[in-house]
């Protein structure tokens, strides 16, 4: 059974449809990459899955239950989903350790000493052991983004949503964040990743989805999407990306 | 590599050992020595200009005032040392009451202000009446002049003859000050809360923190840090406004001063009260400046959003 099912999801902003009937299935341990031009609706789709936005039509199922039903508790859904943002969004007034342990302590009611031990272990695993007591503004962008990933992992989510987590970073820092994501894939984490890094998508994705104008035009294996895209618009998009890279 | 940047020592395995060596090789060039001497000279000149102009202005003011035809009378009325000394103990005792009023009011204002600001962030329709009440409160009490509110509450509440209603003028004065300043401070807190970027809220909610937890652990701590300078500014003006409570009759500094003034027909007691208020507000104003400057520096340093 799939872990997440998105069924005919529509999202409108001021009479303008940003998502137009999206269908998507994500199996456990699957890594899905969302690609598409700026404004195609990738972030909006992720925000809808995390219930940060209310959808205007359709349904989203997590573990078989409809999370878009009126009676669902959004906090209960978010307890099972982690999300990492393009701009890190670490809490600037807390140390790295407090950033990571906040949700385990306050939401999941983990004992503080246990939450701290687990947080330190996770930080160490991602090469951040010596940063636990720093404040976010003392870290590089790559380190901040890795902390943000650790923060979302600390509550042991079933599903991780990553929204262009490398696009605010220096090219030299991109690799360290991508390495973390690769490690998560190897550990079996289910992820939906919105990204502009085509090489990375090709490398890590089990399924690549191409969005345009709020429509999921095409999805398939990375080989299929990147070498023999069926839709002429997918071809056009990939060509533009290639041209931009050559500049 | 740009010119002047030292090449990394290829054969050294301790990079920090190279730094002191590079420093030791640097001897100040003649150009730099001349530049520093120039800077020192200029600094000395600015200081002497500032000193000279202060002396000139101060002398001009003193001469103009003391040369005015009414000066002997003013000097007698306001700067009479013996009257000043005679009034000081009473005015000082009264001033301690001002400080007490200020401290109690300040604490209550902070609580009321924060609660009202938080109520205004509630989005659920269940809380509509609360939210409407908060909006009504800030609109109404920011609109009424503080002195008028002190009259209304100070004379209005006792006139109602309600069972258990306070009728002690100090308490009534504190209530009026709290209601008036609470409305201002609520708006200060609200602007602070709104200045925290929505992405912080999104991050907190995505971690499954509830609205209340998001406010308590993420938004309010950041908001409070940002509004400390404007809050202190409001408190400087609250310190002065404690004197308004004198219209209700408690023996605070202004009241004591006017009792002395009316029995001796001398205004030195007023000067005495004014100096005490200045002594309280000036340190607070400097602290505000200092904190505001520090906040500005922090924000310049980048980091936070
Ligand atoms: N809060 C909002 N109000 C109105 N329009 C919005 C809002 N959020 C997003 N949009 C619009 O929705 C469309 C899709 O935005 P979205 O952020 O999902 O795109 P994206 O694919 O993530 O783009 P990018 O690659 O630039 O991040 C855009 O046209 C955007 O202008
Ligand atoms: Mg986006």
- Terminus-to-terminus distance of chain A: 44 Å
The string of secondary-structure elements of chain A, in order, is EEEHEEHEHHHEHEHEEHH
Helix vs. strand class of chain B? mainly alpha
* Low-confidence regions of chain A: none
Beta percentage of chain A is 15-25%
Task: Give the domain tally of chain B.
Answer: 1
Please indicate the count of domains of chain A: 1
- The Rg value of chain A, from CA coordinates, equals 18 Å
| CATH fold topology of chain B | MetI-like fold
CATH class of chain A: Alpha Beta
Mean pLDDT of chain A, as a whole number? Answer: 93
Q: Quaternary state, please?
A: heterodimer
Q: Look at the helices and sheets of chain A and give the structural class.
A: alpha/beta
How would you characterize the largest beta sheet of chain B? Answer: none
Annotation keywords:
heterodimer, A: 247 residues, alpha/beta, Rossmann fold, 6-stranded mixed β-sheet, 4-stranded antiparallel β-sheet, 10 strands, 24% strand, B: 305 residues, mainly alpha, MetI-like fold, 11 helices, disordered N terminus, binds adenosine-5'-triphosphate, binds magnesium ion
Question: What do these coordinates show?
Answer:
The complex is a heterodimer of chains A (247) and B (305). Chain A has helices spanning 42-49, 74-78, 96-106, 112-125, 141-153, 171-186, 198-204, 222-227, 232-246; strands at residues 4-13, 16-26, 31-35, 57-62, 65-66, 81-84, 159-163, 190-194, 207-212, 215-220. Chain A contains 9 helices and 10 strands. In chain A, the strands form 2 sheets. In chain A, strands 6-7-8-3-9-10 form a 6-stranded mixed beta sheet, with helices on both faces. Chain B has a single domain (80-301), classed as MetI-like (MetI-like fold, Orthogonal Bundle), CATH 1.10.3720. In chain B, 78% of the residues lie in helices and 0% in strands. Chain B has 11 helices and no strands. The two termini of chain B are 32 Å apart. Chain A binds chain B through residues 47, 50, 52, 74-76, 78-79, 81-83, 85, 87, 89-93, 102-103, 106-107, 135-137, 151-152, 155, and chain B through 199-200, 202-210, 213, 217-218, 221-222, 225, 301-305. Residues 13, 18, 36, 38-44, 164 of chain A line the site of adenosine-5'-triphosphate. Chain B: Keywords: Amino-acid transport, Cell membrane, Membrane, Transmembrane, Transmembrane helix, Transport. Chain B: Residues 1-30 are annotated as: Disordered.
């Amino acid at each position: 059974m799939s872990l997440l099912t998105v069924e005919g999801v529509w999202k409108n902003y001021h009479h303008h449809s940003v998502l137009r009937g999206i269908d998507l299935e994500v199996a456990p341990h699957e890594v899905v990459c969302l690609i598409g031009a700026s404004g195609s609706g990738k972030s909006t789709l992720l925000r809808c899955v995390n219930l940060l936005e209310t959808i205007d039509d359709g349904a989203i199922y997590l573990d078989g239950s409809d999370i878009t039903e009126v009676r669902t508790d959004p906090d209960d859904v978010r307890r099972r989903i982690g999300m990492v943002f393009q701009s890190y969004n670490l809490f600037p007034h807390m140390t790295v350790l407090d950033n990571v342990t906040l949700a385990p302590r306050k939401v999941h009611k983990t004992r503080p000493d246990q939450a701290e031990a687990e947080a330190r272990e996770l930080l160490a695993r991602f090469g951040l052991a010596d940063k636990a007591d720093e404040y976010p503004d003392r870290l590089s962008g790559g380190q901040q983004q890795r902390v943000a990933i650790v923060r979302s992992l600390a509550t042991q989510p079933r599903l991780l949503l990553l929204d262009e987590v490398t696009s605010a970073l220096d090219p030299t820092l991109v690799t360290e964040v991508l390495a973390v994501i690769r490690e998560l894939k190897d550990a079996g984490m289910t992820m939906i990743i919105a990204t502009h890094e085509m090489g990375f998508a090709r490398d890590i994705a089990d399924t690549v989805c191409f969005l345009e104008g709020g429509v999921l035009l095409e999805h398939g294996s990375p080989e299929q999407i990147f070498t023999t895209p069926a839709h002429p618009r997918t071809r056009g998009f990939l060509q533009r990306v290639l041209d931009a890279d050559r500049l | 590599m740009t010119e002047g940047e030292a090449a990394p020592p290829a054969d050294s395995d301790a990079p920090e050992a190279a730094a002191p060596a590079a420093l030791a090789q640097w001897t100040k060039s003649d150009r730099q020595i001349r530049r520093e001497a120039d800077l020192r000279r200029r600094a000395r000149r600015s200081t002497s200009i500032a000193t000279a102009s202060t002396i000139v202005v101060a002398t001009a003011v003193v001469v103009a005032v003391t040369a005015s035809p009414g000066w002997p009378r003013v000097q007698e009325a306001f700067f009479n040392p013996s009257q000043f000394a005679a009034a000081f103990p009473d005015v000082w005792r009264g001033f301690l009451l001002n400080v007490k009023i200020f401290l109690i009011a300040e604490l209550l204002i902070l609580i009321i202000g924060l609660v009202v600001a938080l109520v205004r962030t509630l989005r659920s329709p269940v809380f509509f009446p609360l939210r409407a009440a908060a909006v009504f409160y800030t609109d109404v009490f920011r609109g009424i002049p503080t002195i008028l509110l002190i009259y209304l509450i100070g004379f209005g509440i006792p006139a109602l003859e309600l069972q258990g209603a306070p009728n002690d003028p100090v308490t009534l004065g504190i209530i009026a000050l709290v209601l008036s300043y609470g409305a201002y401070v609520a708006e200060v807190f609200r602007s602070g809360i709104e200045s925290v970027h929505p992405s912080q809220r999104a991050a907190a909610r995505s971690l499954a923190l509830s609205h209340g937890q998001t406010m308590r652990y993420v938004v309010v701590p950041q908001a409070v840090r940002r509004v400390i300078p404007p809050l202190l500014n409001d408190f400087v003006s609250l310190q002065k406004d404690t004197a308004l409570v004198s219209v209700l009759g408690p023996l605070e500094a202004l009241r004591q001063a006017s009792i002395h003034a009316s029995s001796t027909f001398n205004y030195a007691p007023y000067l005495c009260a004014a100096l005490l208020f200045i002594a309280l507000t000036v340190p607070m104003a400097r602290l505000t400046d200092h904190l505001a400057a520090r906040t500005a520096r922090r924000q310049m340093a980048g980091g936070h959003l």
